[in-house]
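Hello Y.,

Per our agreement to keep a running log of every chain we model this quarter, I'm adding this entry. I've kept the format consistent with earlier entries: sequence first, then predicted structure.
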Amino acid sequence: MEKWPAEGVPANPGAWLAGVAKHKALDQLRREARRVGKEAAAVTDPLAEAAGLPWPDSMPAASGIAANSDLGTAADELGLIFMCCHPALEAAARIALTLRSVCGQDTKAIAAAFMVPEPTVAQRIVRAKRKIRQTGIRMRVPGRDEMPARLAAVLRVVYLVYTQGHLATSGPELVRGELCDQAIRLARALAALLPDEPEAVGLLAFLLLTDARRDARVDGAGNLVLLADQDRSRWDRERIAEGELLLEAALRAGRPGPYQLHAAIAASHSCAASAQETDWREIAALYGELIRYEPTAAVEANRAVAVAMSEGPAAGLVILDALGGNPRLTGWPQFHIARGELLTRVGRPADAALAYQAALALGMSAPERAFIERRLGAL
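Predicted structure for the entry above:
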């Protein structure tokens, strides 16, 4: 009522309203977070100090993290994420609630991230809100001593924000750069806030090493380019160098975890001078170790691809076929695409076509859909 009569109706009124509403809600949450901090005068809000946190000598790339990020803005959002990731809520529910309430993702995108039906995510969010109301959970920015109990959920939220940007589940673009950038800002702020947590540093290393390939993932026409076919001269070498330094620093702490393993896998790709020189046996072994921390069908499916690259497509296909009955994977387009690729390589074009058609029946970005249609046309 105020803006449109004076400035005109925006090109996308719905998106404009949603954006304004999100900013209003975040402002309200920030005010509430600050109010609680002021009332608890004896408690220092560690997030307010994030920009000034010194990095220990054992973290050689730390000064770069602090210098290259807008820690003030990111720390505000990170504070809201810590606040929503309350340990009294069930793990999956607190992550879904945070992605919806703080990060602004819709239930469809969250469901794709969890590889579950959309109603399941909606129910989790409703249950979490109901529990907050009924039990009187006080939503406030936690003190530093409370952060370890929430760290795993916070790491997962930042990771899922990035994955939603790295491989869009719908829309005209393969990569949603604004989400990737948002996740990297949050990861930098988190690593600066908790420099002694190797998993926080490992997550930042993983995001940088993976995001370094962003520009090479599509060609000039916006078509998807597979990793093996990417022009490696377009990879961001500065990000790769920073990610590798961070990974080395995290590993020196001697407390391995899933995000350090994700970063090690990404580093195995970035260190290879060419696709042919990639150490797929090492990558398969790293995925095998990752399963200890993340015993999910998605990790096992990724291991299957690494096995196929190191031992032959038939070996990888055996693993994928064994996973075929998992309901979460049947709704994941990348699973069917991987099967289509391996079935093509073992000389089973009819089965490969069925796998690609199964992928097409699911939600994905336009470049992914065009890639599958080209594969089907070739078959």
